[in-house]
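Anyone able to model this chain together with flavin mononucleotide?
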Amino acid sequence: MQDDMAQLLQKYNESDIVCFATPVYTWNMTALLKNFVDRLAPLKSPKIKAENGNFDLQDSKAKTQKFVIISNCGFPGENNFDVLRAAVACCNPSLEIYRNCGKLLKSKKPEIAKTVDRWLNVVEQAGKEMTIQGKISEITAKDLNMSLMSIPDYIAYIQMG
Ligand SMILES: Cc1cc2nc3c(=O)[nH]c(=O)nc-3n(C[C@H](O)[C@H](O)[C@H](O)COP(=O)(O)O)c2cc1C
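re: yes, here you go
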């Protein structure tokens, strides 16, 4: 297929850090991101590799990038990220940011927006640490998992529309 993917593959190969960002749609990454990931196929060689009884195509050249995954989902509960987590495991991500109760991210209520801002500052901090140190500190990792709202309050919030 002759389209802008050739340019994107070049950018992908030259990047120090590749960040995949997607909301959870029906347990998984969006179809848009999935299409992009499928179009990375030219980076694979035709040779098959076997690891612990699992089979995959070998990369045509060793990956030099680090990978970051950012996702949000509408429901509470970490299980909403299980499928995505499994799908991205093959790129051995250096950082995975999974935000449940994602409907709060667009809230205009000042007290909610304040909490969301606090969390977004931690996301920014994680980005800085990844860029400078290639990994994030324990405290940043812990703060990324902060709760934005209790589950009963969140359910009441989304059911109010
Ligand atoms: C088609 C569709 C499927 C979704 N599937 C899930 C899901 O399986 N689990 C979940 O927690 N949220 C799900 N959501 C909610 C989204 O993850 C959530 O609304 C997210 O914030 C989407 O951002 P957006 O609405 O700005 O695209 C789904 C939303 C849509 C539109």
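DSSP finds six helices and five strands in the chain.
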